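Thread: quick sanity check before group meeting

JM: Hey all, I'm pulling together slides for Thursday and realized we never actually wrote out the predicted structure for the chain we discussed last week. Dropping the sequence here so it's in one place. If anyone has concerns about the input, flag it before I start.
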Amino acid sequence: MNRKGFTLIELLIVVVIIGILAAIAIPKFANTKAKAYIASMKSDLRNLVTAEEAYFADSVKYSATTACTTPPTAGSVNFCVTTGN
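JM (edit): ok, ran it. Output follows.
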């Protein structure tokens, strides 16, 4: 008899190898959302600094306050710049 196919041991070895690879890969991608959120906040802060510098270039002073009338939406952060901060 000439049987074709894989033995149970071969299949178990493949499953173990896939499990090991998954155990290595999953933690590397687990904090991707947090890293993206932090990168977005840094970008927003850089944009705020750029806007303040542009305002300073036009009026030779920094803005005393910003209108913080928009409530923050889910997953966002609002920056309110006031005198003394």
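AS: nice. The two ends are 84 Å apart (CA to CA). The mean pLDDT is 82.
JM: adding both to the slides.
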